Amino acid sequence: PFAKYSDVNAYQALMEKVGQAMIDGKGIVKNYWTNGDALLQSMRSEEVYLAMAWDNGGWKLHVDNADIDFLAPKSG
Q1: pTM
Q2: 22-63, pLDDT tens digit by residue?
Q3: Are residues 39 and 60 in the same domain?
Q4: Which structural domain range is residue 51 located in?
Q5: Gap between the Cα atoms of 1 and 10, Å rounded
């Protein structure tokens, strides 16, 4: 988006596209967590099955339940 900052119309079009993508994705969003414990509780209660988070929470869940695993992204 940085390249579009100097072009108000192009930036506005981009933001409208991003906004629509967020609206379209609302159906798969279960909650917005405010801290790591809230996310872990959502995972433990099976309200959430997949999340982007720091690895320490993933490993805590794995200790509690070996069926839950943390997958580290590839570097780069």
Answers
A1: 0.59
A2: 999 998 888 888 898 999 999 999 998 888 888 888 899 999
A3: yes
A4: 31-76
A5: 9
